[in-house]
Amino acid sequence: MHDLAPLARFGGLVASGLRDVTDDPAALDSSGFWAVCADFEGRLVCARFDDVRTEPVPAPVPGAWRGPSAGDWTSSLDRLAYTAGVRRIREHIAAGDVYQANLCRVLSAPLPARPAAEGPADVDALTALLARGNPAPYAGTIRLPGHGVELATASPELFLARTGRTVESGPIKGTGRTEADLLEKDHAENVMIVDLVRNDLGRVCATGTVTVPDLCVTEKHPGLVHLVSTVRGELAEGAGWPALLAATFPPGSVTGAPKASALGIIGALETAPRGPYCGGVGWVDADRRTAQLAVGIRTFWIDRTGPAPLLRFGTGAGITWGSDPEREWDETELKASRLLAVASGAHATGGTRA
Q1: Residue 114 above 90 pLDDT?
Q2: Which domain holds residue 94?
Q3: What is the pLDDT of residues 23-37, one digit of tens each?
Q4: Which of 41, 51, 110, 328 is the most core-located residue (most Cβ within 10 A)?
């Protein structure tokens, strides 16, 4: 069996030559180029690489990736359970426990068997398909088979960008097939999450520096549109990565408001851990004091903990008082459908970003 070498790929950057791996966020303030994967439940993997170069994502190689077929996927919450969860969150909202909560489900499918001579399935081969079939501004791959991290993301959402002391977040709330699908509920939801992100950044930024340069801007992505806002601030003196992650994680757009209440509700309703889905995925260049971490949505990961490898993928929706349970289920289907088709090889991969 071929061994898969550790690798990280973010847009046109490729990192190889693994030096060390740690779960200490303080390492991100030291030196070197780091690939970062933070699970929603809090597990942090930071991998420092020696060789970082500019290299385009390669074209897909026929047969290099064989994914599950459409009928192979199972969901941690079926339609009945998911819509019941939406109704339960609305009860919490009516009771004043929460204003908004994100309800997610994890899809799983066995990876097709491969001849031993070909080696294990490689998420970097899936990355090549995603780059053609579902281009995304924060696409990335982290392959650390010895550390339980093998993921490919087509994330459209910025969790944290950093340039020196300036930090920025780009929360997404509101999704439709076209701009005409977006409702007043979507705008209200976005504003709620912007307030939450402002509060999170305010815990670690200098007083008076947190601003909202953009509010509820419509962005087009393959097959759908999003409402996106931008929140920016200047880190307080002495605040580094440990304080920044402690203040902002998990990302507000995939939890709810207030965050602590939403996390409790999520924990009671969801039946599977989210893992890297809804966590943070990206890179930190400690030497240049720059970084770009995406929210781990539109993300596939390989789980090899069981007797056979599984491919997993998460999808969800933000629930407010104005939510219709069936519409929210349909939103989770919309977010998943194109990506699952790409991962199966059934989607034409010649398109460009919509």
Answers
A1: no
A2: 7-65+74-344
A3: 999 999 999 999 999
A4: 328
Amino acid letter, residue 152: A
Given the residues 150, 168, 173, 234, select the one marked as catalytic. Answer: 173
- pLDDT of res. 2: 58
Looking at the domain assignment, is residue 240 inside a domain? Answer: yes
Maximum average pLDDT range among 104-118, 121-135, 241-255: 241-255
Residue 99 is part of a domain; what is its CATH number?
3.60.120.10
349 part of a folded domain: no
State yes or no: pLDDT of 352 exceeds 60: no
Q: Is residue 354 part of a domain?
A: no
Which pLDDT belongs to residue 3? Answer: 76
Please tell me the total count of domains within the chain: 1
Residue 23 is assigned to a structural domain of this protein: yes
- 58/260 Cα distance (integer angstroms): 42
Task: Assign 347 a pLDDT band (cuts: 50, 70, 90).
Answer: low
Question: Would residue 173 show up in a list of annotated catalytic residues for this protein?
Answer: yes
At 145, list the tokens. Answer: 């088979």
Cα separation of 344 and 71, whole Å? 10
Answer whether 12's CB lies under 8 Å from 54's CB.
yes
Annotated catalytic residue, options 157, 270, 328, 331: 157
259 catalytic? Reply is no
25-29, 186-190, 330-334, 337-341: the lowest-pLDDT one? 186-190
Q: pLDDT-based confidence at 182, cuts 50/70/90? A: confident
